Every structure is written in C-alpha cells, then in structure tokens.
Fold histidine kinase.
Amino acid sequence: MINQHSLKMEEQIMYMHAFQNTTVGMAMVSLDGRVIKCNKAVSTILGYTEEELTNISFSNYTHKEDIQRSYKVINESLEGLRDSYQIEKRFIHKNGEIVWGLLNVTLIRDAEGDPLYFLSQLNDISDKKETEEKLREMGKQFQLITDNSLDKISKHALNGDYTYVSPACVNLLGYTQDELIGVSPLDLCHPDDIAVLEKHLTIVLNQGEFHKLTFRMKLKSGEYRWFESAGKGIIGENGQVTEILTFTRDITHRKSVEERLRLNEKRYKSLFENNPDMCFIVDLQGNYTSINKSFEKITGYTYKEIVQDGINFRFLIEKEDLKKVEKHFAGAVAGNVQRYEASGINKQGRAIILDVVNAPIMINNEVVGVYGIAKDISKQKAAEAALKQAKTQLESFIDNNVDPILIFNKNGKLLKVNEAFETTYGWSREEIIGQDHLHLELIPEKYTEKVKINLDTLKSGAKFKGIKSKRKTRDGDILDVDISGFPTEDEKGELNGWAITLRDVTEAKLAEEVLRNSEKLSVAGQLAAGIAHEIRNPMTAIKGFIQLMNRDKEFSSRLKYFDIILKEISRIELIISELLILAKPQDVRVTQADITSLIEEVAVLLQTQAILNNVTIETEFENNAQLIFCEKNQIKQVCINFIKNAIEAMPKGGLLRIKVSNVNDKGINIQFIDQGFGIPSNLLKKLGEPFYTTKEKGTGLGFMVSKKIIENHGGSLTVQSEENKGTTVEVFLPLQRSSEVDTNTHNLMEN
Ligand code: ADP
Ligand code: MG
C-alpha cells in the first residue's frame, strides 16, 4: 500500500512538475470563463499572473474579432454537441500585443454528466502565423509580378500542358489565359521546332532546369513569332519534379536584328574578300593576320606565305618609304585613320606604288590591330608622269613660240597667253587672263563680226589658218596679222576650248610697201632727171636767143622784159640743177660747205610748194656764212625733209622760220619753226621710228633718215611741239673734221 501510495505521490509530484514546467499553457477554466487554475506557461503567453486571470473573464483578453467564435464553440460544448474542440484564435497580451494561440479545450463533466469546468491547453502559434502571413504576402507579390510581367510566366504539368499562364499571354500570343489552360505548348509550336521543345522538356525533368530555348510559336492570329524560354522544375516533397515553371519572351525583333547583323557581317566579309584593292589586317606588331585575294594577286605572295608564315608588313615596304609608313602605322595604332602613298615590293622584287588607308581596329575602346586597304596606283602614277611631261612640253612650246598665242576655254574665257603675246601686244598675263574672247580690246571693233564667224568655226570643231586681219596693241597700234585657230579637246575628245595664233605680218607688209615706194621714187627720180635734161636743153637755146635779142637795138624799148625773162630762166636753171643733184646718185664727198647758202638753195626748191600752201618761208642767219664739214647732199636732204614736213603741217598756210645760229664755236644750230597743227605728246616718241606716218601719202621715212644722217655727222636732233600751235625741229651739227663724218647711209633701212 505504502508503495502504491508513495508511487501515487511520486506520480503526482511528477505531473505537477510537468504541469508547471511545460511550454504548453494549461488551465482549468470555469464555465463562466474564468481561470480556476493555470500553469506558468499560460501567464507567459498572456502576460497576466494566475491570480489576475482568476479574476477576469477570458473575453477580456480575447481579440474582439474572435470572441464570437469562441462563444459559439463553448455553447456547442455546453449543449453537448461536442466534448472537445480545437480553435485558433487571437489573444491580447497584457502589453496589448496580439498573440496567436492554438487552443485545445475539453469539457469535464461530473458523474451525472453535468459540466464541471473546461480543461484548456494553449499553444503560442504567433511565429507560425507570422510565417504564414509572410508567405501569403509573398504569394501576393509573386502574383503581382506574374500578372504584370511582360514575359509570359506559365506553369506546366509534367507532360507540358499549361496549368497556369500569366496575363502576358494575351499580348504575346493573342490567347486568353483560359484558352491556354490544359493546352500543350507543343500544339502551338512550329513543326520544325517540336523536336527542340521536346528535348528541353526532358532536360527540365531530368536536370531541373534549362536556360535557353529558342523556338517559334503560332499566335492566335496564325502568325509565327520567335520566342525564347527558360524553364525550372518545381521539386516536390519526394525530391522529384512535380511542376514546371517557364518564362517566355518574344525575340522576333532581336532575331531580325541578329539576322541583319549576320547578313552585314557576311557582306563585310565579302567586301573584304572580293575587294579589287588589297585588304589586310595586321596585329599591333605589324604581322599580317588576314589578307584578301587581291593582296595575293598584287603582291604575288600566297596566303600561306603572308599569314601562316607570319610575315611582317615592314618586309614588303620599299626601304626609302619605311620611315614614313612606320609613322602612319603608329598613327593608326594610336587610334587615328591614316591615308598615304607608299612603295611596296612584290614577290618578283618590283616596286608597286600604293595608295593606302589604315584604320585602327577597336574592341572595347582598345586598339587591337590595324585594318588596311591599299590600291595599286602604279599605272595611274606612270600615266600621270607621262601626262605631266607632255603638258610641260606643250607649255614650253607655247611659251617659247615666236608667234603670240592665246588659249581659251570652251566658254571663251582667256586661259593663257605666251610671252610673245605680252611683248607684242603690251598686255601682261595678269591684266588680260579671264577676259571674254569677244570683248578683248585686242580686237578692233570693226573686226568683231569676223571674229564671231571664226569662233563658230572653232566651236563646230573645225580649224582655220592664215586668215588676214588686224589686231590692236595696248598702245593702240594696229598690227597686220595672219590668224590661225584650232579647237582643243579634253581626254574624252570633247571640245574644251581653242587656241589662237596671231602671226604678225605688219613688218613684212611694210617692207613690201617700202619696196614699192622706193621703186616708185626711183622711177619718179629717173623721170625727173630725164625731164630736167629735156627742159635744160631747150632752156639753153631760149636763153642764148634772148641774150642775142638783148643786144639788138630793135628791142631796146623792151629791155626791162629781157631782164625779167633772164632772171626767171636763171631761176628755172637753178631748180633743174637742184633736182638733178637729188635725183642722180651722187658721189659721196665730204666737203666744207656753207650752211646758209645750202639752206637758201633748198628753200628755192621748195618755194613753189610753199606758195601753193600759202606758207611763207623766212630765214634768219646769225652769220653770213656758216662753214661746216659735211656731205652736202645729205644735209640738203635733211633740210628738205624738215621744210616739207613743216609745210605739210600748215595746210591753211602760215609762217616757217628757219634760224641758223652759232653754238659756242662748237657747231651750229638749225631751227625749223612752224605754226602747224603740232604733234600730240604721246606720239612724239614715235618720230624717228621707221614707217610712222599720219599722212595718206606719207612714207614715214623722212624723220628716220634725217635723224640717222645727223647722228652720222656727230650731231643731234630735238623736237618740241604743241598741238595747234606749232613744232620746232632743232638740228645741231658740230664743226668737225671730214674724217669723222660717217656717210654710209646705204644701210639706213636695215637699221
Ligand atoms: P612723212 O612725212 O612721210 O609722214 P616723216 O618721217 O617725215 O614721214 O614724218 C613722220 C610724221 O611725223 C608725219 O607723218 C607727221 O605726222 C609728223 N610730223 C613730222 N614733222 C611734223 C611737223 N613739223 N608738224 C606736225 N607733224 C609732223
Ligand atoms: Mg616727211
């Protein structure tokens, strides 16, 4: 008994201990809801002491929203509908926090079956509840992501059928979520992609996931588009895949970009491969890593020799150019595109002139090599050199041509003139180049029509030669020219301009005229000489008879007539003899002559012409006789020239004064002072030039010959003139020895 009793005691202590120390809350609760007895755990869970709990109803520390439910199960127990119940409910801890509890309640009845009290067990399940809450929250978020994902997120059964599809399927495929549930992606897949899809289904089942599957799916519209999927198996409790999760996106756009890229790459490759120019890539050391067919063809080396054997570009560059190429290579390596010309050497050792472009190859902002394109310009260079040579030849031909040459472009603008043009016509290149053909001052106005006709000939592609015309110099002189012209062509054979040659024929023409004139003069001279003879003979007879008659008394009353007749006859004789002196080629003899009487003789000769022109000749001599050594006839010629010029300058008459004066015993001065129309100052310098004349029947030789004669006598000549006032021609002749006089005037014309 004792043993039994003590055992019971021990048991009781044990239960007591367990009751007090378990983490499970235990309590006896009265039928009206107050705690009768409870363990520590209940106090810990709810925060109230046992004593406090015995004084308040459970409803005081039950969450408001759970009170209703609590009463419901309590009543059901009391009504005998159930003996025990289990309920999850919220308590309010004494500090106000919510505590989730799992409550197991058993209604204890007495022997009669009447309810005595409730026996409650309380577990704190707040932690569990919190986790659940979090999970639910996560689920919500997951749903949110899934619903709003642009990618289609789906769940599949193990055979692949959709069990869930995110709303993105509407946008991506055109199907509603409901339409897809129970459907297999295999049914939507492009026939060509079924195999790859099946393969990935196996992969996800065996390996748990796949990262990338590219395939086409048919949209509801019937169109196929490219998609990319990743899949993941969801592992169940048994460690096996129970479900498949997939993420799918439309990559049609990316695909087409990729496709284009691939095409581009192909194109570039073909551009490289089939480029008619040499294309190559070298690494940073300058070793070839890639070359094209043209490279092989132009250099004569094979791909193997260049790339596989690892040749360096420096090996193929001519020595003199190496420094330059090295510089450009460094430039390309530094990231800058280079263009230059360089000489390479082909396999046969021959030089090839190359036009090279080098560009850096950049990967992630770093130069990893150099790309090159080189054009073989050897032929072009040779042609250029030949062309340049031809051009220089042509230019020197034009520049050094004795005939003036003008070159025009096809619009008639003057492009070029040569030196002969500049010296003949007086315009410098700078002044005249760029002017229009038809507006050149060179062309006298009345010839413009002719020039137009010539231009039409040239523009039609034909040439002309030796057309006689006249051209004007910058100073206004008119030159006789033979014009030739020919059209010029460009390299395509099209007219691009024309060239004009102006051959100056003025001098040739003048020489002809001089010949004609001198012939005329000499004929006139001969005639005059003949006539003079013919007149002199009858004149001698007449003179003799008049002298005879003079002695006859019969005529004594007419004596004064005889005097006049004799005087006039003497005068005729004088004129005739003067004429004869001039007309006949004379012996050249330097003698001492009296200039005053020489001038008087000449004046007599020209008196008739003077009277005809209403000109009075006055002579003023400082001394009665002025002796100098000279060729008398030549000095006479000089005086005749100047007197004639003076008379011709006074068509309306006037006074011509001839003054002879001494110059400090050094020589004499002869002045011919007229009141004629004078000589414009710009034309004064022309006096003494051969053939310069303003007279219709003039020769333009008088002045020149006179000047020459005076110079040969050691003298000099000056002319002063004022327009419409008159001209003074002043001749100085020195007193000199006969031996110093140069009488050679035969070559006057040639000077
Ligand atoms: P030509 O008398 O045959 O014309 P010249 O050599 O004697 O040739 O004279 C050249 C030109 O010089 C003349 O045509 C004339 O224009 C000009 N000249 C010469 N002397 C005079 C003068 N005294 N007064 C005006 N003009 C003159
Ligand atoms: Mg004259």
In short: Residues 641, 644-645, 702 surround magnesium ion (ligand 2) (CB under 6 Å). Residues 745-751 have pLDDT under 50 and may be disordered.
